[in-house]
Design goal:
The protein is of the alpha+beta class. The chain has one domain. Helices cover 22% and strands 24% of the residues. The protein has 4 helices and 10 strands; from the N terminus they run βββααβαββαββββ. It has a 5-stranded mixed β-sheet, with helices on both faces. The protein has a 3-stranded antiparallel β-sheet with strand order 5-9-8, with no helix packed on it. It has a two-stranded antiparallel sheet with strand order 2-3. A hairpin with a 2-residue loop joins strand 2 and strand 3. Helix 2 crosses helix 4 (133-145). The protein is globular and about 50 Å long. It starts with 5 loop residues before the first strand and ends with a strand. 25% of the residues are buried.
Length: 202
């Protein structure tokens, strides 16, 4: 297993309040968020994304300031039967969390049938940068559009961008939009070596 540091960030306000989602009902008080509408109960009980993002950003800047990184964020709840620590152990061993090729939800298919190891956002970590809100907020809102529960991010993998290669791809139904969030490892035999660290959010 690779010697990959794990940094813990405690975010006590990052709680997903239990809400009963009754499908089939029209919520006339729904609030627009980009191109979807969020039921009033979910909107009113949303976490403080800005405060949460700022705390996780603090950890990122403390350990990776000035580095060009690619961040893959995920919720261990999407890995049924596995705790956050178990998912982290898999990441340390494999270099990623895509251990089950039949697991739904990873959306690795693309119309050009290009190989993609994982999806991530890449950037250089700057002192004034604001990063993790753009991970935390969509993970809460987007699943609601599919009548599913919000996802709480509790793991973020920090990759060395220099050890990755970008894969420009297109999704079905969005053929005119080139997506730049796909990546493959430069060295498929040493995938874990591309991991600079893991942030565990508790």
């Amino acid at each position: 297993m690779a010697s990959i540091p794990v940094f813990k960030v405690s975010v006590p306000e990052y709680k997903l309040k239990k809400i009963i989602f009754r499908s089939g009902l029209v919520d006339h008080a729904a609030t627009p968020w980009y191109n979807i509408k969020i039921p009033k109960a979910y909107w009113e009980k949303r976490p403080d994304f800005e405060s949460i993002g700022r705390k996780i950003d603090g950890c990122l800047k403390k350990h990776f300031l000035g580095k060009r990184v690619a961040i893959r964020a995920l919720g261990s709840s999407e890995h049924k039967g596995k705790s956050a620590d178990e998912v982290i152990a898999i990441i340390k061993r494999l270099g990623h969390d895509h251990y089950n090729l039949s697991r739904k939800g990873d959306r690795y298919e693309n119309i050009d049938n290009k190989k993609i190891d994982f999806f991530a956002l890449d950037f250089r970590v700057k002192p004034s940068g604001e990063y993790f809100r753009q991970f935390v907020e969509p993970f809460y809102f987007w699943p609601i559009a599919d009548r599913e529960k919000p996802i709480k991010i509790d793991i973020a993998i920090v990759y060395d961008s220099a050890k990755l290669r970008r894969v420009v791809h297109r999704y079905k139904g969005r053929e005119n939009e080139m997506k730049k969030d796909g990546f493959v490892f430069c060295d498929p035999e040493k995938k874990a070596d591309a991991v600079l660290g893991i942030i565990k959010i508790i």
